[in-house]
Amino acid sequence: GNSLGDRTFVMWLRPNSNQIHFRISTDENFNEGGNSQSAIPEDVWTHVAYVKEENSLKLYINGQLDQAQTLEGNTINNDGPLTFGGSPYGAGSNVFMDDIMVFDRALSEQELGDIYSDEDDYSQIAWWPLHMDGKDQIDDANGLLKNETTFPEDIEKGLVAEFDGVNDHIEVPHRLQLALGRDNKPVSRSLWVKLLEAATGSE
Fold first, then answer.
1. Which of 65, 94, 119, 168 has the lowest CB atom count within 10 Å?
2. CB 195 within 8 A of CB 43
3. Residue range 79-135, pLDDT digits in tens
4. 3-state helix, strand and coil shares in percent for the chain, rounded to the nearest 5
């Protein structure tokens, strides 16, 4: 987004708990949403998905529903950039990330289970494998590397993106098809993450 208050839509790790803070901006509250029940473990790959459909916001961890929230307002459009690993407004966490995907529909639990099991053919509208760069493999929503984002080799996933939790991030310039949740439309986001050290900083 263009400011700390643009949260359509966001996920980050809560400091000192490793729970996921998942939020979206609506015309009732710029920070609607919830926190995961589960904490993200360190040094283990975890699949995370965020699904928004009508007034329902759901968080899935490893293919299973972890938390759901009913939104009080309609989604506010976000015309700012999409960022991974952190943002210009705050530090992220020291993590590996892999295979970030965006969908213009609400994924079902079955579809999320297929992604977790590494099935193919997801029909996503954007896909950033993060295997040496921030390029989108579906269209041309290519991400710009900010600061010292690196791409080490992980024993399980191969080449992945590493963010230092200080100021590294990837920034995807605004594109209409990635104006996530615009006009109250459904949207889903999926990614793999490995937490390298406990989350710190501000919420």
1. 119
2. yes
3. 778 888 887 776 778 899 999 999 988 999 889 888 888 766 678 889 999 999 999
4. 5, 40, 50
Please tell me the distance from the alpha carbon of residue 112 to that of residue 190, in angstroms, as a whole number.
8
Residues linked to residue 144 through DSSP beta bridges, in sequence order: 171
Other CB atoms closer than 10 Å to residue 120's CB: what's the count?
6
pLDDT digits (tens, 9 = 90+) for 50-76: 998 888 899 999 999 999 999 888 887
Tokens of 156: 């399980």
Interior angle at CA 37, CA 2 and CA 4, nearest 5: 10
C-alpha radius of gyration, the chain, whole number: 15
Both tokens of 58, joined, read: 């759901």
Residue 1's pLDDT is 45
